[in-house]
Fold:
Amino acid sequence: MSLLLSFLIPVRDAATRLGAAIDSALAQEQASIDFEFEVIVVDDGSRDASLEVAMEARSRDTRVRVLATERLGLVAALNRGLEACRGDFIARLDADDRALPQRLARQLERFARDPSLGVVDGRVRFVGDAKQQVPEGMRRYEAWVNSIVEPDDFARLRFYECAVVHPAVTMRRELFAKVGAYRDVGPEDFDLWLRMHEACVRFAKVDEVLVEMTDHGARLTRSSPRYTRRAFREVAMIHLEARCLAARRIVLWGAGKGGRPWLRWLRSIGRTPVAILDIDPLKIGAMRGGDVVVRDYRDLARIDGDFMLVALGVHGADDAVRVAVSELRPEWREGLDYFFVVT
Structure:
């Protein structure tokens, strides 16, 4: 008996791109693993021709199923689509994007090689639209997120950035019974991945480009306040609170702009750090809040801390921090004793 997979594509007012997204889902190649798939399109109250595009695709291919809703919002639309999906696996795709023909085959093969995996992502390629090229910041994110491949990488970096590309992910449907559906708490995918990490779900990535994502100004990740850095940080704080409350003495690395919101948050939950570390000699020796001194990062070897958050807004500083921690606190392990966090 073949596996059944469900593509889940929510859409609102994306008529010019939706047809290409649906067609890319329908054009999936077969693999050594026998599988079938369906395409669930959830039209979230579009005011353009998105619903008509979806219905035309349904008339051409019976694998397409269309749900038309009022304007519920993305989270509600995703959850409505989840309820309709019949597959053993859920493959997400956005209406702006295109799945390459080998996507499902490669992801199923990865699941087959390691049955312990619950989520398999794919590498992505960002492409510009007619109005703009992909900016340098997005290119840096593309390079970073494509470098996160193995389960340990996903686990240790889970609070630092969203290491899972939502429109490129395929996941076991049974996970939603374990962790619940999407929640309306800022970036809904980041929250879902963190809940899955808490449930010990293992993530991996196919080391091959499987999805092309169109980067444009109207994309929700650019236009909606739910995807700001502050929103990501607040979701990370929700999921880090239990770890911080369990720690006896917390160290915060980062006395600059990146560390300030984390210091305020730690104070708010009654876990004021015992020290703040920095590399900038102009900051060292200063007081934060009148009771926490900024210390040279090399003092980490002498500080009686048992947990550390690293909040740096400096691009490229991560590896230097890792080297320093390995020298000063060799017993500490990233992803257990310290985490890089969203700034």
